[in-house]
Specification:
The protein is an all-alpha fold. The chain is built from 17 helices and 2 strands. GO terms for molecular function: L-amino acid transmembrane transporter activity.
Length: about 475
């Protein structure tokens, strides 16, 4: 396919909504022909069956998950006001990257994942590098979700079993559920997971008896209990009422600040997965509707949860934040959050597994037909991804450190730089207007800033993990639900 063909406007018929399976089967059993999946028939899974509401759920679940439980710690690093400002800036920048995903997909219908975009930008090297980074990134994120699930199981059972056992249980559950074949069928997992994470962040605050009326009306489960107690569970005991040591502005070290920025980027780093999500939409033209709804909702949730929890806990906030409310409410919060934590692991294992699966079978009849090769490849992909994620979860058992390391090493590289390059690829030959020059400058900034954050953030995250007082041994049986 030459460049002129790739850059042409899409044929409306080629991006028209894919019919659902109900009542629309024609005699030759063909549902439609897709530029990525080929001929889709009733003899196999329908990979073009996600509506915009389902797309919204999938987008929100790639964003709202582990990140929201680390947001109060980010605010503790920057202080309340700078924390909100940096969060909003990251939200705006990543929303632009997300928008580029939709426009690039409509221009280049053969693109399934960011590796296909990498091939267009940088040839075979770009294809291999972006493909490897995407697979490793979401596999690592799934691993951190398994770790978060083990924290929840420890909290609920009062450390009723070895932590290594809980991680293994999470891995088995992730493998079973991530083997659901299509994103259309995964959307219920996304809705359940996103709602549980949000509610678990909300419950704490609604139980507060001594908080202001405004605070009562704005929070989410972790936000109910942090005001219920006299002091955060991590705070030292002492006479008299607890007074939060929250700061409106803080003065973090470079290492702490860049690690916090990496965590923020991680919370919005569903961007590379949006290629795969839009590829399974019935009507990709509705992508922006789902995108803007997702980003606004996610940003509001982050600000509300992080602000309320940090206001009541100050520097004694736990990571994950559900540990900040004391033993009883910690169990309540984790009980509600558990499906969300597990849902993150499931969806974020499904994505790299599907990536590997499509890459292996693309162009063959086995991709969309239920043959033996189809099933062996699919289960082999989900098992391999789950196994690597399990090894990551067990080998780096520090929640906040793992989140920031993933954010620095992969998230910024897959969420910022490539999209500046994509805009330049599509628009370099456009007329040299003032807007064109501004966009070129913007893309250059995105590429340079993303590169700096990747290098500096990785360094800061590694230093934080090495220096962490809460570090435990790999495959440890120690309780990981009491880290602060």
């Amino acid at each position: 396919m030459n460049d002129s063909t790739m850059k042409s406007d899409p044929d409306p018929e080629s991006i028209a909504p894919a019919p659902s399976n109900v009542g629309e089967v024609i005699q030759d059993k063909t549902i439609q022909h897709d530029a990525v999946f080929g001929t889709i028939t009733t003899k196999g899974p329908n990979y073009r069956n996600v509506g915009w509401i389902g797309t919204l759920a999938l987008m929100m679940k790639t964003q709202i998950g582990l990140g929201v439980l680390s947001m109060p710690v980010v605010f503790d690093t920057f202080g309340l006001i700078p924390g909100i400002i940096v969060l909003v800036v990251v939200a705006a920048v990543t929303t632009w990257s997300d928008y580029i995903v939709g426009t690039f997909k409509l221009r280049h219908r053969h693109v399934y994942g960011i590796d296909d975009a990498g091939r267009m930008l940088f040839g075979k090297i770009g294809y291999e590098v972006f493909g490897a980074m995407y697979t490793l990134y979401f596999t690592f994120v799934s691993g951190s979700a398994m770790l978060g699930t083990s924290v929840a199981l420890n909290a609920l059972s009062t450390h009723g079993a070895c932590t290594a056992v809980f991680v293994a249980v999470a891995a088995i559950a992730v493998f079973c559920l991530s083997s659901i074949q299509t994103l259309g069928r995964m959307s219920w997992v996304a809705w359940l997971g996103a709602c549980c994470i949000i509610v678990s962040g909300k419950l704490h605050r609604n139980l507060v008896g001594n908080a202001s009326n405004l605070a009562r009306s704005t929070v989410f489960v972790i936000t109910i209990a942090v005001g219920l107690q006299d002091r955060p569970s991590a705070a030292p005991p002492g006479p008299g009422p607890w007074k939060s040591d929250y700061k409106l502005a803080n003065n973090p070290s470079f290492t702490d600040a860049i690690s916090a920025v990496s965590t923020l980027i991680f919370t919005y780093a569903g961007t590379p997965a949006f290629f795969n999500i839009v590829a399974e939409m019935r009507d990709p033209r509705l992508y922006n509707r789902a995108l803007y709804t997702c980003q606004i909702t996610v940003t509001v949730v982050y600000i509300v949860v992080a602000t309320v929890v940090y206001y009541y806990c100050g520097s004694y906030v736990s990571s994950p934040a559900l540990g900040s409310a004391g033993p009883l409410m910690k169990k309540v919060g984790y009980g509600i959050a558990l499906p969300g934590l597990l849902g993150s692991g499931v969806l974020l294992a499904h994505l790299p597994a599907k990536h590997v699966f499509v890459r292996v079978l693309r162009g063959s009849k086995h991709l969309t037909t239920n043959t033996a090769i189809h099933w062996v490849t699919w289960f082999g992909s989900t098992f391999s991804v789950t196994l690597v994620a399990y090894l990551v979860a067990s080998g780096i058992p520090v929640f906040s450190g793992l989140v920031s390391l993933i954010g620095a090493l992969f998230a910024s590289s897959l969420t910022l730089q490539p999209y500046g390059c994509m805009w330049l690829y599509d628009h370099w030959q456009d007329s040299r207007t003032a807007r064109w020059h501004c966009m070129v400058a913007w893309c250059a900034f995105i590429i340079l800033a993303g590169t700096f954050i990747t290098v500096a953030g990785t360094y800061g995250s590694i230093v934080a993990i090495v220096q962490s007082p809460d570090r435990s041994r790999p495959w440890s049986c120690a309780d990981n639900s009491n880290s602060t």
